[in-house]
Amino acid sequence: MRRVVELPRAYRLLNHGPTVLVSAAHAGRRNIMAASWSMALDFAPPKVAVVIDKSTYTRGLVEASGSFALNVPCRAQAAATLAVGGSSGRDLPADEDKFAAFGLQSFAGSVLDVPLLEGCVAWLECRVLDEPHNQQRYDLFIGEVVAAWADTRVFADGRWITDPALDPALRTIHYVAGGQFFATGEAFDTQAAPPLRG
Amino acid sequence: MRRVVELPRAYRLLNHGPTVLVSAAHAGRRNIMAASWSMALDFAPPKVAVVIDKSTYTRGLVEASGSFALNVPCRAQAAATLAVGGSSGRDLPADEDKFAAFGLQSFAGSVLDVPLLEGCVAWLECRVLDEPHNQQRYDLFIGEVVAAWADTRVFADGRWITDPALDPALRTIHYVAGGQFFATGEAFDTQAAPPLRG
Questions:
Q1: In terms of DSSP bridges, do strands A2-4 and B159-160 run parallel, antiparallel, or are they unpaired?
Q2: Taking CA B10 as the corner, what is the angle to CA A42 and CA A78, rounded to the nearest 5 degrees?
Q3: Nearest Cβ partner of B198 from A42, A93, A160?
Q4: How far apart are CA B83 and CA B58, in angstroms?
């Protein structure tokens, strides 16, 4: 079940560094791409940073609409993540998009006009904070998170569920290279080492 | 054994989103802090982005020296990661630093005057690309990676070693909250789903 994530906890959806999918829409066109380079940038109001290359079709939609979503895929979606990461919306006919081409279902953002990918385990709806220098020079986009959602099987009460019995197909993923990912692994608790002195 | 990572492969050290330690030195003072919010920003020359809060002692050293290092800790260092993340170099006497306080060994950067933490599995020496607006408004620092290193037990020939037999203590870590981390988990290969149409 999808449930709202309180905004001051939204950074936790990205804190452990999962690979994300960036989606956007404008004027009847929409697209989705993969991004290994994203991170949380602030707690409240929550902000994120993500790299969106100039060559991508998604970038034009983000710039035109001023909105994007970060979708956090799970292991069951690794093939779809590679598929949308390895193809461009530019190469599709005008009446098609990657959602249709790859048989991906979406649902509408709650606040922004962004397509959210069904089957992901978390979603962040982001409004672009206009930073032309960063966008042009570094392909770096900064967004304010205006709504966040998570699948309650994996994230509830503001925290990732770290139960070892969690279905491995629902674990988040971390791209390595060449079609290979790491799954998010075992959770463990740590006690900070006490200072040796003073 | 530590070996140089070719610069065009340096982004791979961060691509899967591990928690890092940011270290810096200036005028005889040095410090190290934990950061969940970092990412690769470019391939070649490689760049990184990292959030360094204004309240941190590390920040002053980064601003004064124009340099920082990202150290990638492994599970064996989770307690040290929490320790340096939960304390400030500001609170230590002038003749002490966190390395001494927590019994941490360091070695010198090869290009920059940055202290690198022994026992980590990868290191990136970074020169700050001066972006005062980002630094002031978002606590966001952009660095060019001028040297990178990895422990050949976990990263060799430009890739993370994904052998399931890898010592769990050498796996990288991903901070969750409240003293809890995820270990980097199982690696898996994926075939992109073929397009359903066209």
A1: unpaired
A2: 70
A3: A93
A4: 15
> Could you list the residue range(s) of the whole structural domain that residue B65 is in?
2-183
Cα(B188)–Cα(A183) distance, integer angstroms: 7
Report yes or no on A190 lying in a domain.
Answer: no
* Helix (H) or strand (E) run with residue A58 in it: helix A57-65
Any domain includes A124: yes
Q: Do B83 and A195 touch (CB under 8 A)?
A: yes
We report the CATH number of the domain holding residue B101 as 2.30.110.10
Confirm whether pTM is higher than 0.90: yes
Tell which phi-psi region holds residue B150, choosing left (phi > 0), alpha (psi between -120 and 50) or beta: beta
Write the residue in A42, A139, A162 that is nearest to B180 by C-beta.
A162
- Which chain B residue has its CA at the smallest distance from A46's CA? B138
pLDDT in tens, chain A (198 residues): 999 999 999 999 999 999 999 999 999 999 999 999 999 999 999 999 999 999 999 999 999 999 999 999 999 999 999 999 988 988 998 889 999 999 999 999 999 999 999 999 999 999 999 999 999 999 999 999 999 999 999 999 999 999 999 999 999 999 999 999 999 999 999 976 555 544
Residues of chain A contacting residue B80, judged by C-beta atoms under 8 Å apart = 193
How many domains does chain A contain in total? 1
